[in-house]
Give the backbone structure.
Amino acid sequence: MCAPEYRNLAHRKDIAKTYGYLDVEGLVDGEVAWWTGLTEPPEDVLNLLEYLISRYDNIEQPFRDLDGVNGNGQITLKELVEGLDSMSCKKFDEKKKAKGQKAVTGGRTKD
């Protein structure tokens, strides 16, 4: 996952223009809904998103809460686990927690 300030609109516009044949000239960040199709991410990612959306008005805030006060714009597996525990997230049982964390982090386990 990356922080909102690391979004690369120019790159996304280039992809949309090259592969989607879309007219993106003049498109500015404020006009973009930064989202993905709901059929693309794993179920555990959707469950985490559902949990966060039901508790926050702004989806960027849980990212900042998980990243920490002096965050670096990236969430490590350790930050994710500790952050969800501090939120008292019971969305995943212990068996599914490891599987869900793997799905959310794309299999990266480095802290």
